[in-house]
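User: Predict structure, ligand zinc ion.
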Amino acid sequence: MKDGFAIFDAHTHLGEARHSGRSCSADRMLAQMAGSGIDRSLLIPFPVVEDYRKQHDVIAAAVRAYPGRFAGAVCLNPFLPRQEFLDEVRRCVQELGFCGIKLQPQYQALNPISARSDFLFEAACEHKIPVIWHTGTGAPFALPSLLIAPARRFPDLPIVLAHSGGSVYALEAIVAAGVCPNIYLELSSLMPHLVLEVMTHVPASRLMIGSDLPESVDAEISKIIGLPVTDDQKREVLWGTASRLFGQ
Ligand SMILES: [Zn+2]
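Assistant: Predicted complex:
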């Protein structure tokens, strides 16, 4: 809790990253959460890893060890052999209890408007888990408007635009969410004035907070708590939307 608000961080990374050299353990994440007032975090593997099964197992162990504090999401190279990809998604959901699947197009250049990306969205539909799509850096496949196509092909599938397009494409994310009721926006990295712009167009019931990286946690929380919006809106952004989507 922070200032009376429960907080569900819908965008964090646990494990080890090959591309950046970053690493984060469950204990370090818990200490960060305690210091910042975060009640629950969605743990996502980094996008470039040595062994994706091991990274998923590390997250699963954290979820098991600290009930209620963590939820897990799948992230793996979409260009693996198709069956290998689908088998790992199934293992993560059915055996490890994960509740989302993330794609990072800066490192995993899948085109969301092509039917060749259907397998990922179909897997999410089959397992009833939201897709989380990084947006912003990594254009063209990270452009928010491109997610309108799969959101319409799969109207019952929640699609979360991580970073809401970032500062440059935030307005495009607003348009995408405006035309697709199954598009949700995660607000990490947006400056407060852009979050306010988002909130004038998109209901708080489709918005959620994320930290992405430990250095940003306190800034991401205080930027929401400090907004001139209602406490009900803040409660949705800080907890309600993510707790409904990631169902725990
Ligand atoms: Zn991230």
